[in-house]
Write a structure and sequence with these properties.
alpha+beta; FAS1 domain; seven-stranded mixed sheet; 5 helices; 7 strands
């Protein structure tokens, strides 16, 4: 579902580059409650910049593989902050051997799929949509 809004949002230039990146991709289940109204509403020409912001806040520069991500988080549960391409901050933490990602508005998702390697990066599946402050 995420892939269907990348082109209309104008985010293909971000994802098509040669530079490596990590995409934090919300699962279809995470997007489903938003898809009918909110996401489709953001496809309107006057709101596309907001959708691009949401999408680029799910992209981190660099080919961050799971082993590197796990080394970023601290076993004591404290958070490690990561800045996204969209200038959002994602707080990573570890709980019960699972990597958690929190956004700036208080939503926390769990990484459910890791290291889906692509020619120019890696994809992580997360069970929540992580939103920017708008």
């Amino acid at each position: 579902m995420l892939a269907t809004v990348v082109k209309p949002a104008g985010a293909t230039h971000t994802l098509a580059g040669a530079d490596p990146f990590a995409v934090i991709a919300p699962s279809n289940e995470a997007l489903a409650p938003l898809a009918a109204g909110w996401v489709l509403g953001l496809l309107k020409p006057d709101l596309r910049c907001r959708l691009e912001k949401v999408l680029t806040c799910h992209v981190v520069a660099g080919k961050v593989i799971a082993k590197a991500m796990m080394s970023m988080v601290k076993a004591d549960g404290s958070m490690h902050e990561v800045k996204t391409v969209g200038a959002c901050v994602r707080a990573l933490s570890l709980k019960s051997k699972k990597v958690l990602m929190a956004d700036e508005v208080g939503c926390t998702g769990v990484v459910i799929i890791a290291d889906v390697r692509q020619p120019n990066g890696v994809i992580y599946g997360v069970n929540k949509v992580l939103l920017p402050i708008m």
